[in-house]
Amino acid sequence: MMSALTATPDADEPAGSRTTDTLTTDAGAAAGVSPARTTDRDRVFEAAEAIAAEGGSPTVTLVRERAQCSSASATRFLREWRERRSARAEFPAVPEPVRALADRSIAALWEAAVSTAQAEHASELQAVRAEADVARGEADGLSERVDALEQEAGRMRSERAEAVALAEQADAARSTADGERDDALAAAARLEGELAATRDALEEARSGVGQARQEAERAVAEAQARAREAADDARSAVDQVRAAAEAATAGLREALADARSAAEAARSEAGRVRGSVTAAERERSAAVAAAARLEGELSATRDLLAATREELADVRALAGEAERARGAAEAGRAAAEARLELAGSK
Q1: Structural domains in the chain?
Q2: What Pfam families does UniProt report for this protein, alphabetically (predicted)?
Q3: How far, CA to CA in Å, does 191 sit from each of 13, 187, 201?
Q4: Which of 16, 18, 122, 139 is the most exposed place for a label (fewest CB within 10 A)?
């Protein structure tokens, strides 16, 4: 009954209809109909009464769903309702005449209370309506705000999806980069090993080239030394042969001059003692013998010159061999340097 007194009536409705509606509302609470302006406690009580009237057992879940309140309120006020119900069950039932009299008295009291409430709270109703209009405006604004927030949430969800996609792409790119980095590190390690092997081969090649160069230089030096010795020997032999040839030529010239002088003297003597044939013949024979001797000496000198030429050819052949040895040594050194440059370029 107290919940009915707290309801605020509409000032535009007739008093009789308001009384009838109020009594209907109070009587309809057993059917689960809630007034427009009630508290959680009133709604919980009404819901529990309605469920009990339907033959059911009021539970927190059923009461919460029908009263449209929180679980805490449903639990709290349902406990209170049960306590009051238990307290009412201890008293005997109210007789019907008493109940009818009470209902009539209550109706009269309710009509008077409603009239008084209408007179006292007309201005409050107007204020409440104004507040309701403001609340509706605020609700419209909040609805627009909710729509904007929903759009913003949709945009943020789209951005989040894009961010997730970008993050997945970044993870994939990071995985690819990690794989490429591992491949690069493996390739670098392999190249370092190959470089170390190449360096070792280069050092070995340099060492071999150095040894080959030293051997080539030593061979060239030996060949040059032999060539110089052979050339010196050849020069000495040529000088000796030339000196001997010059000496022989000088002797031949002197002998030829002597022979000519003797021949001239013989001719002069032959002319002077032309009469002495025997003497002339002897001188002539002597001159012929001297000429023959000179011819023999000249032939020996020619043989000596031929032998000297042969020795000179041998010396030249030896010098050619020395020159070829030096060329071979130079070629070996060039080849070694080429191998060294090739190893360095690798």
Answers
A1: 1-116 (no CATH), 189-345 (1.10.287)
A2: KfrA_N
A3: 100, 6, 15
A4: 16
* Element containing residue 234 per DSSP (H, E): helix 96-272
Q: Would residue 35 be called left, alpha or beta, if left means φ above 0 and alpha means ψ between -120 and 50 degrees?
A: beta
Q: What is the number of alpha carbons within 13 Å of residue 254 lying toward its C-beta?
A: 5
- Decide if 81 contacts 42 (C-beta within 8 A): no
* Cα 233 off chain centre by: 74
pLDDT given for residue 279 in this prediction: 64
CA distance 75 to 65: 12
Residue 254 CB neighbours (<10 A) = 10
pTM: 0.26
- The set of residues, in sequence order, having a beta carbon less than 8 Å from that of 238 and lying 6+ positions away, is 308, 311, 312, 315
Return the DSSP state at 40. H
Q: How many CA atoms lie within 13 A of 243 on its CB side?
A: 5
Distances 180 to 46, 177, 185 between C-alpha atoms, Å? 74, 5, 8
Q: What angle do CA 333, 336, 342 make, to 5 degrees?
A: 140
Spatial distance between the Cα atoms of 133 and 118, rounded to a whole number of angstroms: 21
With 0-12 CB in 10 A as exposed, 13-18 as middle and 19+ as buried, what is 125? middle
